[in-house]
Amino acid sequence: MKVSEYKGLRKESLRDNMTDIEVALTNLGEIATHKLAKEQKNYGLEQNKKIARRGGNIAKITRDNLEKN
Predict the structure, then answer these.
(1) What is the pLDDT of residue 8?
(2) What are φ and ψ of residue 18, in 5° steps?
């Protein structure tokens, strides 16, 4: 299920409907992905998909830790 479906959004911007924590975690994932991509200097879709998953995983781990506490 897409996030927009989960939140019941049709045409609204997804970020406009996020909580402050959701926006921060999204930014963290994007920044981590950008940093990893810069360090790895990978080329091609498949390599960049792996980097994107790693960046998203960093945000997921952070969210899980936040929810535990």
Answers:
(1) 73
(2) -95, 150
